[in-house]
Design brief:
- The protein is mostly helical.
- The mean pLDDT is 83.
- Helix 3 crosses helix 7.
- It has a 3-stranded antiparallel beta sheet with strand order 1-3-2.
- The chain folds into 2 domains: 64 residues, Herpes Virus-1 (2-Layer Sandwich); 103 residues, no CATH class.
Length: 189
């Protein structure tokens, strides 16, 4: 029996840094490893101008040109607009909306939030309104315990009102496309 160390890699971890729960890169047809690295490692490889996969030696040059240069263009665009607009990807906008919903549970209409109360929770409208009027944002932790899922509530809220109502000062979401990457702009003061 050998004294070597055997490492079992979790497929959700980055194959380069092995750190779990990091934002991973988008799937790629360049090689099987390209989509198994986190964004931080991909950026580090781009910065040192790494052109080949360290595992299978596939050429990343095309991907480097398509993704990295596109990423640089998008960063420059975001920097130019940062004082006027919040510029987010679809995923980032959804995450910001979830955060905003959690902070504004007390401000959501009873008709909408009551659809997401846990089974057996029969909080009447007048008690809900009294709780919210007295506690304001301090009622959020209580309301969060009463609902089944803030994600489902967020989805429903976005369908009714749009993400702009949560993220923009003017309640508008402006979709744009840069190098086939979609971004969404939200006005901020």
């Amino acid at each position: 029996m050998s004294d070597s160390i055997v490492f079992f890699h979790n497929e959700n971890d980055c194959t380069i840094c092995f750190i779990p729960d990091r934002p991973m890169t988008a799937p790629s047809d360049v090689c099987q490893h390209y989509n198994k690295i986190c964004r931080a490692c991909k950026r580090a490889l781009y910065e040192i101008d790494k052109k080949y996969c360290p595992y299978c030696r596939q050429n990343w040059d095309r991907q480097l040109k398509e993704e990295f240069y596109t990423e640089k263009i998008i960063e420059a665009f975001k920097d130019g607009l940062s004082t006027l607009y919040l510029c987010l990807t679809d995923e980032e906008a959804n995450e910001k909306c979830r955060e905003a919903i959690k902070e504004q549970l007390f401000d959501i209409d009873y008709a909408l939030i009551s659809e997401f109360f846990k089974e057996g929770c029969n909080l009447p409208r007048d008690i809900f309104e009294k709780l919210v009027s007295i506690m304001h944002e301090d009622a959020n932790p209580i309301l969060e315990m009463l609902i089944t899922s803030t994600d489902d509530l967020c989805q429903s809220y976005i369908q009714l009102n749009g993400r702009g109502s949560l993220l923009a000062d003017d309640d508008m979401e402006i979709p744009i496309c840069i190098c086939n990457k979609y971004l969404f702009l939200y006005a901020n003061e």
